[in-house]
Specification:
Layout: E1 3-4, E2 10-11, E3 16-17, E4 27-33, H1 40-55, E5 59-64, H2 72-81, E6 86-90, H3 115-122, H4 127-138, E7 141-147, E8 152-157, E9 171-174, H5 178-186, E10 190-193, H6 196-205, E11 210-214, H7 215-220, E12 229-237, E13 240-245, H8 246-251, H9 254-288, E14 292-294, H10 298-305, H11 308-320, H12 324-339
Length: about 350
């Protein structure tokens, strides 16, 4: 008897039902995203798919990449309703469905931490992970994990952005996201939402003189042809979330839950070094294309976080996310303390030689 753990998905463009062929007693999980061929998200899902298949437990990941079943918002709606089981996307589109995910808009909140520390907070046994999981469940979704390794959205510009004062008056194209725009305004820049299709020509003509994106996006758009500087502002974590319809997850057998959770966990771990490699490789391509890379130390990030407008933005996001902002900040600091190498124990001073005990008088 065939068992499907997905509802019917009408693929309007094809006018057909998006199921694959099935074997007896198999549970199929329709999984979809909008990632392009070869992108990190697609590599991740294919890893999960292979691991689930290798478990030979009757669970199948039926994968539809590259927006075949719709855009991010469409896929999130389908996952909520159970029309598909699993979807992957960056965090920004999720905010409309789960307001607490706006915590990822906290500027530079992750910038001073390494990938291991961030992973402990996002995917480990942390207060933040527990609270975020609860927020997903309220929206009818089950949080499977976050894929990241301390890679970030960066700024490219035709201005040498060495110091904080260099950002003043910078006309920078951003996503149409109030939190992102308020951040750039707070540090003195002039954020300008602009359609993606218009960005390259606008940079070329000087309509705007900067933009922000992850390194791989910059390479794909050939921004090295129209931008001189690559500033590692690390303002937003480049992170993908993976979620599943909660009812469908709860309906899985204990064995299938274990297989899926293990496949997700192992794939996240395997993707970590790949994400770092992808980031370094793309930065290298931009540099070879003629861009100068600017890197900042922790004092730069501390100076940014001390700006009153940035502090106000933190307070607003913390309120909008039911206190998750402060929980994230505290969880990251706690995880960093736990990861810090222990102070070496002091070496005790050598004991003074004891005087020989005189022989007792007979």
């Amino acid at each position: 008897m065939k068992k499907f753990i997905v509802a019917l998905m009408l693929v309007l463009a094809l006018g057909s039902v998006a199921f694959g062929a099935s074997e007896m007693d198999e549970t199929w999980l329709v999984t979809a995203d909008t990632t392009a061929k070869g992108a990190a998200g697609q590599v991740f899902v294919q890893l999960v798919q292979e691991k689930v298949k290798a478990a030979n437990a009757g669970l199948v990941i039926d994968y539809f990449p590259n927006g075949e079943l719709g855009g991010d918002a469409d896929l999130l709606r389908q996952a909520q309703k159970g029309y598909i089981a699993i979807m992957l996307c960056q965090t920004a589109p999720v905010v409309s469905f789960i307001p607490e995910v706006a915590v990822f808009d906290l500027p530079m909140v992750f910038a001073r931490y390494d990938g291991d520390t961030i992973d402990k907070v996002l995917n480990g046994d942390s207060t933040f992970h527990k609270k975020m999981s609860e927020a997903y469940e309220k929206a009818g979704l089950h949080l499977l994990g976050f894929m990241q390794n301390a890679t970030y959205r960066l700024a490219t510009a035709n201005k040498d952005l060495q110091t904080l004062s260099d950002f003043k008056g910078l006309q920078i194209r951003t996503m149409e996201n109030k939190n992102h725009m308020d951040f750039w305004t707070a540090i003195g820049a002039e954020p300008t939402p602009l359609a993606w299709a218009e960005l390259y020509i606008s940079l070329q003509q000087g309509t705007v003189n900067a933009q922000e994106n992850a390194a791989d996006t910059c390479v794909g758009a050939h921004f090295e042809e129209v931008q001189n500087y690559l500033a590692c502002t690390n303002h937003i974590l480049y992170c993908n979330q993976i979620c599943m319809n909660k009812k469908l997850y709860d309906a899985l057998s204990a064995e299938h839950k274990a297989v899926l959770d293990k496949a997700i966990s192992e794939s996240l771990a395997e993707m970590r070094p790949k994400l770092e490699e992808i980031d370094k490789s793309n930065k290298s391509i931009l540099i070879k294309g003629g861009m100068k890379m600017i890197e900042y130390d922790n004092s730069f990030f501390s100076d940014v976080l001390d700006i009153q407008g940035v502090k106000d933005l933190y307070k607003r996001i913390d309120t909008a996310t039911n206190g998750l902002g402060n929980i994230l900040v505290d969880s990251l600091a706690a995880a960093a303390r736990q990861s810090a190498p222990a102070e070496p124990a002091p070496v005790p001073a050598p004991a003074a030689e004891e005087a020989p005990v005189p022989a007792s008088a007979e």
